[in-house]
Write a structure and sequence with these properties.
The structure holds 2 protein chains of 2 kinds. Chain A is mainly alpha-helical. Chain A has helices at 5-37, 55-59, 65-96, 99-110, 117-128, 133-140, 154-179, 183-190, 195-206, 208-223, 227-232, 240-250, 254-281, 283-289. Chain B has 9 helices and 20 strands. In chain B, a hairpin with a 2-residue loop joins strand 17 and strand 18. The chains are: A mainly alpha, B alpha+beta. Chains A and B meet through helix 8, helix 9 and helix 14 of A and helix 2 of B.
Amino acid sequence: MKRRPWQRRRDEWLLTLPSLGWLLLLFVIPTALVFAMAFRPVDPYGGIGAGWTLATLRSLGNPNYPAIVWRTLWISAATTVFCVLLAVPAGYGMGRAPAAWRSRLLLLVIVPFWTSFLIRVFAWKLLLHPEGPIKRLLLFLRLTEPGAPLLYCSAAVLLVQVYTFLPFAILPLYAAAEKFDFSLLEAARDLGASRATAFRRVFLPGVRRGLLTAVLMVFIPSLGSYVIPDLVGGTTSEMLGNKIAQRTFVDRNLPHASGLSALLTLAVLAPLAAMWLLQRQRAPWLAKEGE
Amino acid sequence: MPEFLEFEGVSKRFGPLLAVDNVSLSIKRGEIFSLLGPSGCGKTTLLRMLGGFETPDRGRILLDGEDLAELPPNQRKVNTIFQNYALFPHLSVWDNIAFGLEVARRPAREIRAEVERMLALIQMQDQAHKKPHQISGGQKQRVAIARALILKPRVLLLDEPLAALDLKLRQRMLIELDAIHDEVGITFLYVTHDQGEAMSLSDRIAVMDRGRIEQVGTPAQIYEAPTSSFVAAFIGDTNFFEGAAVEVLNADYLRLTVEGFADVVCFNDKQLRPGQLVYLSIRPEKFRLHRERPPDKPLHNVVRGRVEDVIYLGSHTRCWVRVGDYRIAVYQQHSRFLLDEQPIRWQEDVWLSFHADDGYMLERYREADEDLIQAAAPGLGAPPAAERATL
């Protein structure tokens, strides 16, 4: 029995329907609601008023916001850079490791997930505490002043962010490195490339997809990060996520929180769209690579 | 005066395995030299040590009198064709070929000219923009060759370069490789487990087994005068006989008695004395099959036997003939074919003859090597009914 093209297309749609419906109901519609809520007036009791207004949009021009947006961007960018810098050698090493070792190393990467994320962040609070072990060690080594803070600053936020997001960078890079044909590095060496040149011109392009995934997996969640700056950051290391939480829970200004959320969503979508365009450009090869 | 390329007592151990065991080799400038052996014999390890990807535990490798020990792979004037080609998947054919020159930061104009020249050599000018996944296996092979040759290496190392190609393409690439060698004239070091490739391409062959060199020689020397049972059985097919010297006939020949077979006259290049034991290798195509007893001639051995199996293969027919305790493989060329000629059949009584020079005495014999003989004799069975009726 031969199926016609239109039947096949219909079946494909039927198969995709459940997941499409799920996405529409629980992702697309809520996001649209958040965007819409930014144009509703505030209700004095913390709810949503009737009618439409541009007041929230104007209030997003708050002079404090550019600094917070900027900080959110640079902490996220720095988190991404550090994570990738650490994950590339880690992925390379794991990809080259003997098969028996790979699963053990992989386990080491995943093992932190067995502990609640909140508990791990609190653990960092203890470690970085003014009376904590790290501070004492640094004092002992005369690398810091007694008064200099380790906690409640942007550096602490960055450190804990890198710690938290590192596995999300290592996993895609390891997946790419595992598939990478390491004899290509020998071929490059054979053709006169130094170790560094072979790494840069052959290994990095070879794991490019893993690299892109790692960047997205770290940069996007880190833009929306809220718990880490809330717990280990101070007033000078607030990120956009904290402001949204503050507008929601403290100020009870849902339209304003929605406006900020919409802003964040757009900020996340922008790099995603850029990556997508970049990948599409090389689609013929990438499509083949997966074979 | 050392040769162009010298391996001096090179050994390499991987854990408990002695992959290369005290190998010494001299390779001349401009020759095609093959390392031939079964997988795991150490030939690839030897090649990788020359390429700089493994370090010898002992011994030295000298290229043009220069010890390579301290040189990393990227500074050695040797280039490798890898078994899986190892073309860079993210680069086009053009960029793959240009890679070596670009890494060496040569001027763009020179790179362009050299790449064009290489593309012409491998006849792929119109494929330059394609990515490796868009070209065929034979084309990948040619790109790998161009990518290595563009750096003008002193030695081109080829690691089973044709193993991934199908038979027809392999035969064509062999001819192309030979043509490229004639054109560029550099030394080729060719690693293969395929005796056919090694025989047809090489000036000289080193046969390897278990990390050791078994024999070095021209293809004809290796085939006609094997030193060991391994070489005799690994290259081509053969029959082994265990004999004892009985009588020295003259300076060149002696008589052997082979228990369970016959007394045979044999060329005595090993200068054996009566009483000494020796193993003899006789290639299947050296035997002649006769229905009538051939007339006695000096230095000809004639024995009587019965045909146990016949396989017609077009270019020749393979027979297995029972003579005493021995079951002998005999290849019979069809010098002319007459339709009314009565072919040799199953269970026919025949005469076998071979010249005294056709048996070659082995220096070393190991019983396990008999398993390497490729013309494994088919099992003994009853002749088909049709055949039985005519007998």
